[in-house]
Structures are given as C-alpha cells and as structure tokens.
From TrEMBL:
<feature type="region of interest" description="Disordered">
    <location>
        <begin position="1"/>
        <end position="22"/>
    </location>
</feature>
<keyword id="KW-1133">Transmembrane helix</keyword>
<keyword id="KW-0418">Kinase</keyword>
<dbReference type="Pfam" id="PF00069">
    <property type="entry name" value="Pkinase"/>
</dbReference>
<feature type="transmembrane region" description="Helical">
    <location>
        <begin position="337"/>
        <end position="357"/>
    </location>
</feature>
<keyword id="KW-0067">ATP-binding</keyword>
<keyword id="KW-0723">Serine/threonine-protein kinase</keyword>
<feature type="compositionally biased region" description="Acidic residues">
    <location>
        <begin position="432"/>
        <end position="442"/>
    </location>
</feature>
<feature type="compositionally biased region" description="Pro residues">
    <location>
        <begin position="414"/>
        <end position="431"/>
    </location>
</feature>
<feature type="region of interest" description="Disordered">
    <location>
        <begin position="412"/>
        <end position="464"/>
    </location>
</feature>
<keyword id="KW-0547">Nucleotide-binding</keyword>
<feature type="compositionally biased region" description="Low complexity">
    <location>
        <begin position="1"/>
        <end position="15"/>
    </location>
</feature>
<keyword id="KW-0472">Membrane</keyword>
<keyword id="KW-0812">Transmembrane</keyword>
<dbReference type="GO" id="GO:0004674">
    <property type="term" value="F:protein serine/threonine kinase activity"/>
</dbReference>
<feature type="domain" description="Protein kinase">
    <location>
        <begin position="36"/>
        <end position="307"/>
    </location>
</feature>
<protein>
    <submittedName>
        <fullName>Serine/threonine protein kinase</fullName>
    </submittedName>
</protein>
Amino acid sequence: MPLRPSGSRRSVSGRTHGMWPEAPDPLLGHTLADRYRLEKVIGHGGMGTVYRAEHVVIRKPVAVKVLDAAHSERRVEVQRFLNEARAASKIRHEHVVDITDFGSTDDGLVFLVMEYLEGEDLAATSDREGSLPWRRAAAIVLQIAAALEAAHAQGIIHRDMKPENCFRIRRGNDPDFIKVLDFGIAKVLEDSEVERPSSAGSGLLGTPEYLAPELIRGLKPDARVDIYAVGVMLYDLLVGKLPFAGESFMSTLTAHLMELPTPPSQARPAAEIPAALDAVVLRALAKDRDLRYDTIGEFAAALRAAIAEADVVVAPPPTPPPLPPPLPEPPRTSPRWIAAGVVALLVLFSAVLWTMAKRFYTTGQVAPAPAAATVVAPIAAAAPVLAAPVAATKVEAPVEVAKVEVAKAEAPPVAAPPVAAPPVEPPPVEPPTDEAPADEAPEPATVRGPATPKGPRNGPAPLTADEFAAGMAKLGARVKLECSRYALRKMAVTVQVVVGADGSVKSAEPTGSQAGSTLGNCVARVAKTALLRPSRAKSSHRHTFTM
Ligand SMILES: Nc1ncnc2c1ncn2[C@@H]1O[C@H](COP(=O)(O)OP(=O)(O)OP(=O)(O)O)[C@@H](O)[C@H]1O
C-alpha cells in the first residue's frame, strides 16, 4: 500500500481512478436481495465498494458493502467473509457499527449491510483539526478501546485498526461518538490469496503505519496487535504526527522495529500532556508485545487512571487533627440590654411607689401593691437575663437612651444565663457509614455529648463534606465529556460515594432515577477515579453532577 502523502491520513481507501471520468457504477439503482436499493457510492475499500442504500420495505437508510468480484469468485473466501460477518454482527456494542444483514445474491454478489453512519472518519477529523486536546483524544480512544474489548471478548481481533476505520458521529450532545468499522474483515483477509492494495506487494496485511512489530516479524497475531495500533492512533491524535512514519514503506516498517518514539509530551510540549498519559502511550507501543498491556481492558483502565491522576485533587499533607471547636462565647449582656433592664426596674419601682403613694394619700396607709404583679409579669418575662447579670454589671447607661431600649427589649429571645463550661476536646467523631451518608450525618464539628478525647491520636481529620464536594467538582468537566452523550442537558445524576481512608474511592453508585442507568453508571465510573485527601476513616458522601 502506498504510504499516505505527508499531511494526509488517507491510505488505502478511495482508489485512484485516473484522469478519466469514472463510468457510473453498474450496481447503482439496483435492488440487492430484493431489499436494498443502492443509491450512491460512499467509497471503495480494499475488499469492495460501500453504497448508501435504502431498505425498500422499512425505508431506512443503510450502508451496504459489496465484495469485489475478485473476492466474490473464491468460494472459500466468501465463506470466511460470511463467517466473520456473522461473528462481527454478534459483537453488539454501542461503539461497534451494527451489522444487520449479510449474504449473497443469485448473481453471486456477496454483501454486508450495516447501519448507515453520518459523520466522518477520524482520519478526516485529524486532517482538518490536527492534534486534539489530550482530554478529547483520550475520550475518543476510550470509546475505541471499549469497542475492541467487546470484540476481543468474542475472539475477534480487528487487525486493521486505523483512523479510517473509526467513524465519528454526533449522538445527542456528543459530537465525538465513535463507531468502529470493519471488524473481522481483516481476519478473513489474512488467508486470502487476493492481495489487498494495502499490502502493496509486501505480503503484509494491514496498514503499515499501524502495524505491530510482531506482524512485521511474521509472528501469529493476537489481540495485542490491536493495542499497538490503538497506541499509534492515540499518539497521532495527541501529537498530530505518527510515531513511526518513514519516507518509504520499508523505512516505516523499520521504524516500528527499531525506533523509540518521542514521548507525546515532548513531541508537543504546548499541549501539556500529562506524564501519566505518556506512559500509557509508550507502553501500548512497546516493541515486545509482552511488555504491552495484556488486554485492551487493561489499557483502557490505565488510560482512565492517567486521566484521573491529572484530575487529582491535590491532597494537602496530612494535617494535625482540628483543635477543639472554640467554646461558645458566654452570651454577653450588652450595655443596651442592661440599660433596658434598669429602666424596666425603674418603671416597675416607680409604678409600685406611685400606687403605694396614691393609696397612702387616699387611704392613709401603705398597702401591699397587688397591681405590681400585673406590671412585673410582662417585664420579667421580657428580661429574664437581668436576674443574674444586672447585679454583676456596672450600668452607666443614661436613662433617656434606656427608655427607647425598653420597648425593644421585649422582642428578641434571650439566651440562658452563661455558665462557664469546662474546656472539652471534641468527642470521637464516628466515621459516616454507607447507611448514613456524611451529607446527612453530623459534621465532625458537631459535638455530641461529653467529650471522649480521641482526635490528635487518631490520624488525619475526617474528610469534610466541603472537601469531598470540591474533589467531585473537579471531575465535572470529565463527567460531561464522557457521559453527556447519554444525557439531556442539565440532567442531574446523584452518586453515593464511599471514600476510603487512603483517599481513593471505594465505591460509587448512581442513586435515585439514574440508579443502574447507562448515564448513572457512566457518571459513577468517572466518580470512582477521584482521589481525595487521606483521612482517619472511610466515609460516605453524596454528590450531584449536572450534565
Ligand atoms: N456504515 C457506514 N456508513 C457510512 N459510511 C461507511 C460505512 N462503512 C464504511 N463507510 C465508508 O465507506 C468507505 C469505504 O469503506 P471500506 O470499509 O470499504 O474501506 P476502508 O476501510 O477505507 O478500506 P479497507 O477495507 O481497505 O480497510 C469509507 O469512506 C468508509 O468511511
């Protein structure tokens, strides 16, 4: 296969048809297998032509790949193609193109029907946009890895992973939803006697820029060839340049075998690619397959961990446990209250005196003052605080001011007289448990009952609700990036998260209406990557992400 010209990622697909106008495709307008009317040629690949077609009964657009005559004439090859199509159609994964039908016609045409994808392949995206921000590149590659994981679980090795086989479509709000194409076809080709354009006479199958060294050495491939190819793709997306690309077919193969790639962060310093991401890419590109990740699932986990590491909440060094909360200040009796009390007493005293004097002058005797009780009652109720502090406090408030305050004195509630509390340390704070989420449980600062000294000797302070919320908030962007395709705008997802004493998330579960949903599980998966401050004991929290 000719190497792609510099700046172009197009490789084998799209044959060159020379300078003469192409003859119209003879199959256009025909209805294949009585069901698929072929409407338009989408493109030509190594095995055949892909058409946009319409299912004549259900009127749904589909993509139909029709094998070239050179392949269709070989019965063994056709049988293998159909076997692989059958296997690939069973993968059934959201990131794998759906194969809905396959077979052969009476005319001997062998075909495969797929869901019709509107969008562009990753090669076109890269050609237009160049390198992508590392988070976007990683999010795209995680989807590719998920598709491959599903295929590998069915024993299908892709063998021809490249940007042209990864289609980018819009799904909901997500413009980067990936569908992987061409599963299993490469495996068929492995035993084919028909040379693919991509092999360019070398006997090698696949596309040279993505060929794992063991394939070049002629070893039997296993799933790790796909890991290598995905490593090349991730490198390309991050850096905007292939890790191994020589001037010729042979020099590219030699680079795969001999050259060590420049780490992505060095190849593109301005992109601030985290070191942990470098490590993932370089391990996927190990020349010795035993040094690569064993499975694509391991690769994906490492990639997720690298993203999480970049998102890590920078844990402060373990701090000494908090000092006991300051004792509540004894409620100070303000001079205004004292003045008010004095005025009240003066009023009361004057009233009693006035009553007694009145009686004295009218009856000539000093009688007990029953009216005083009715006067005293409301005043006493209004200012019980006066009982203790007034006596102990020097009051110098002018009576004029105090008069005004008397009126107000009835309104505010008055605290109980201050009692000097003995200094206490905070009581032991029970780590919140799964059953009692920390958000609902009392905060550590809440003192319950008499103190049992514990704090300073029991390790770092408990993780507070605020610290947890801050840690989760840092994942907000990633949650949106990875999970928004499953959500409507502004949808809320609440997760219940258990944080271990070491600061790692032990479990994260979506709750409420999102419990068990794809969206909920996606958000929980991201939440699990959080790393919080080590604390004294495990704790349980809730957090709500808004999409
Ligand atoms: N399901 C689909 N929906 C829309 N376009 C598709 C679909 N499948 C393939 N195509 C497009 O059809 C063209 C030919 O695809 P095909 O898979 O035959 O070739 P290829 O992958 O480029 O080459 P090769 O088969 O050599 O790997 C490509 O442009 C591809 O993007």
